[in-house]
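Quick review question:
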């Protein structure tokens, strides 16, 4: 977005102006300290109050960690309201000095930068809000909006540094970070410190309030460099309150009389303090921008690590461990996090990632399409644990679609229909055990089970590989490239030859996480379809829980469909060996 590019440019300009103004305030402080005050003082109201008012407004503008907003310098002295004494020569010297004029010019420039930044932030927030429209809840929508804002800022920062970074990869990481903001415990922070350290605080520093307000009349800034929810919040900073940092010139003169002209006045010290604070704020902003750039570089390195994955292995290199750390850092599923605590499962995950890459890379390049369909074929079953349906819809995955009810098996006809995208709701039929029509009444929904549309928890799905000892293994190997249909990429969970110990049973969330990671790095989006049985495999009967999300069937019930005569014989034979035929068809 153009707004994000302009915003990043202004943030860097703001840093320079902060530094320049701080230097000028230090110069003014030196002038104050060097002026020889005479004992012949006069009552000054006009110029003196103007100087104090300017100094107070200048300090107020930069005492905050937020960006400067327009302030009414002319009215800043209104709350002081008393005549003060000072040398008329001193007043004329300070008021007419080049440092004072330069400082005033710089402050005006900073105010203009602040005004433009506010306008850009409003536009950027509005655009990002439209981009994430349709989230399940207002809280999720807000988090996604803030995630999109920071993704756009990071994208602009990458472009400024001539780094080719996929925006989808930034979105994936940022959305995960924002979703963790309240669920991340100390243990998780420690385990994934290479990715998480500093990320939350950096993002929260740049999280900007949706409704930005400026009221020069009231002397209030509500430009929000704020945090999220339970994190830091900075707003409603009152300009007038900063007048307290500048002592009255009357008090200054009294100190001169007592101690002499070499006395480092409270007024000059206040200017030094303000300059120091400005430099600190400038340094803080630089550190946060540098931290964002560091994350961008780490994500770029991650992408290269994935692209350069070697052959299947039970060992794990430093770069490969970084991939696992990233998945742990961006995963909010406690089941997967716990599963990845062992080195064996980490290598299992990496080998599965290699397998998916091998199956997807070539097909994605050949199709040259931004949106694809992926059909994952495997042995499958459910257990008595439950996970959010949303855990199966991750970055760059449009939706994950299930077809059979819970505790239901599928046969070759249904699997072939899923794989080819020719399955229809009106075709589905349920058979009990061996080809006996199931007369049990099932209130089946008139739609397939879309994980994006569901707000419920679903049974945990486990997916097992097809091993070399199974007859189906040879059938899938023989059909090879012809496995892919015209608009779908079919990925059977097939153990590569002689690598049985490199692959294990996976949670469906793990499969989705790996698919998501590969899609993000290839800048492709996909709808995922599962062709697997969902029987309960001796886990407890949970009719009430199953019926709450979609529907369920009795044990040993199969879902099938009627198929046309025109089918790919090799592909259908492979599904026949894996799932069998029910209902007397084919």
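Suggested answer, residue by residue:
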């Amino acid at each position: 977005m153009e707004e994000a590019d302009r915003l990043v440019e202004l943030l860097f300009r703001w840093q320079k102006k902060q530094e320049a103004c701080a230097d000028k305030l230090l110069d003014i402080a030196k002038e104050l300290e060097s002026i020889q005050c005479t004992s012949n003082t006069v009552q000054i109201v006009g110029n003196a109050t103007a100087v104090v008012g300017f100094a107070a407004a200048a300090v107020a503008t930069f005492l905050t960690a937020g960006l400067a907003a327009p302030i009414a310098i002319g009215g800043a002295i209104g709350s002081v309201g008393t005549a003060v004494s000072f040398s008329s020569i001193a007043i004329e010297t300070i008021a007419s000095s080049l440092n004072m004029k330069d400082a005033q010019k710089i402050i005006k420039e900073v105010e203009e930068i602040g005004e433009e930044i506010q306008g850009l932030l409003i536009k950027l927030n509005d655009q990002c809000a439209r981009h994430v429209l349709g989230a399940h809840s207002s809280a999720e929508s807000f988090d996604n909006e803030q995630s999109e804002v920071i993704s756009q800022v990071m994208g602009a920062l990458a472009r400024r540094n001539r780094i080719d970074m996929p925006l989808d990869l930034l979105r994936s990481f940022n959305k995960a970070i924002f979703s963790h903001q309240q669920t991340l415990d100390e243990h998780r922070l420690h385990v994934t410190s290479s990715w998480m350290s500093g990320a939350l605080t950096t993002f929260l520093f740049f999280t900007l309030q949706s409704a930005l307000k400026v009221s020069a009349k009231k002397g209030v800034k509500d430009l929000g460099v704020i945090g999220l929810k339970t994190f830091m919040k900075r707003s409603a900073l009152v300009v007038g309150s900063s007048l307290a940092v500048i002592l009255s010139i009357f008090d200054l003169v009294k100190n001169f009389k007592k101690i002499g002209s070499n006395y480092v006045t409270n007024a000059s010290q206040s200017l030094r303090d303000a300059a120091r604070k400005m430099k600190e704020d400038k340094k803080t902003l630089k550190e946060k921008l540098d931290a964002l750039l560091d994350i961008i570089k780490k994500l770029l390195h991650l992408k290269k690590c994935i692209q350069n994955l070697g052959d299947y292995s039970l060992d794990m290199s430093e770069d490969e461990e970084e991939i696992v750390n990233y998945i742990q850092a961006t995963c909010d599923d406690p089941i997967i996090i716990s599963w990845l605590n062992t080195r064996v499962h980490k290598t299992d995950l990496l080998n599965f990632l290699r397998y998916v890459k091998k199956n997807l890379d070539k097909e994605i390049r050949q199709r040259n399409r931004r949106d694809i369909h992926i059909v994952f074929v495997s042995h499958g079953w459910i257990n008595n644990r439950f996970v959010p349906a949303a855990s199966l819809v991750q970055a760059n995955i449009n939706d994950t679609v299930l077809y059979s009810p819970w505790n239901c098996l599928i046969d070759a006809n249904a699997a072939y229909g899923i794989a080819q995208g020719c399955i229809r709701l009106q075709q589905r039929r349920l058979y009990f055990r061996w080809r006996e029509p199931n007369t049990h009444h099932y209130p089946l929904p008139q739609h397939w089970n879309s994980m994006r549309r569901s707000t419920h928890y679903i049974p945990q799905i486990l997916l097992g590989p097809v091993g070399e000892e199974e007859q189906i293994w040879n059938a899938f190997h023989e059909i090879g490239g012809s496995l892919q249909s015209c608009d779908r990429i079919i990925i059977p969970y097939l153990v590569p030859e002689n690598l049985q110990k490199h692959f294990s049973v996976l949670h469906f969330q793990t499969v989705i996480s790996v698919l998501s990671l590969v899609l993000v790095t290839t800048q492709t989006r996909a709808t995922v379809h599962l062709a697997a049985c969902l029987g309960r495999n001796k886990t407890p009967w949970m009719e009430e829980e199953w019926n709450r999300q979609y529907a369920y069937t009795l044990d040993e019930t199969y879902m099938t469909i009627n198929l046309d005569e025109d089918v790919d014989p090799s592909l259908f034979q492979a599904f026949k060996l894996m799932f069998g035929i029910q209902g007397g068809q084919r």
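Why it works: The chain has 19 helices and 17 strands. Residues 36-88, 134-139, 184-193, 208-264 have pLDDT under 50 and may be disordered.
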